[in-house]
Design goal:
Blueprint lengths: L10 E3 L3 H10 L4 E2 L10 E6 L2 E6 L13 E5 L3 H8 L5 E7 L4 E7 L5 E7 L9
Parallel strand pairs: 1-4, 5-8
Antiparallel strand pairs: 2-3, 3-4, 6-7, 7-8
Length: 129
């Protein structure tokens, strides 16, 4: 296949759309599009630069579990993001610099999705695994 892939935008189920919007806009600075449909919102697209995440509330006839998965978000300065969120969320692990040239840390959103904030670095590793 010769088609160039340009980006990926995960579409994740949530139990509370407003809570997801509030977390990602307040804690991480995403901008929310207009939730849709207007009369009973069940979908929203959140955007921060080239990073986009879609959230939806599954319908009752086809339930899907929320909170099972990990989003790895590549940033320019993981330590700046860590400083901005460390007093507002529970950090699960990190920040740590790994042998594969990444500095990373992780926390969870209110639905349970793990978020890994990651940056490329040539710093000396302080964690092997």
């Amino acid at each position: 296949m010769k088609t160039k892939f340009l980006r990926v935008s995960p579409r994740l189920p949530v139990t509370d759309l407003n809570r997801a919007i509030a977390f990602y806009t307040t804690i991480l600075g995403f901008e929310a599009g207009d939730p849709w449909p207007e009369e009973a919102p069940s979908f929203v697209l959140l955007q921060k630069g080239p990073v986009s995440i879609q959230f939806y509330v599954p319908n009752a006839s086809k339930p899907e579990p929320a909170g099972y998965g990990t989003l790895s978000i590549d940033v320019e300065d993981a330590m700046a993001v860590h400083a901005a969120v460390k007093d507002r969320v529970k950090i699960d692990w990190g920040p740590e610099t790994y042998w594969y040239g990444r500095r990373e840390f992780s926390f969870r959103d209110p639905e349970g999705y793990a978020l890994i904030i990651s940056e490329e670095t040539d710093a000396t590793p302080d964690c092997e695994k």
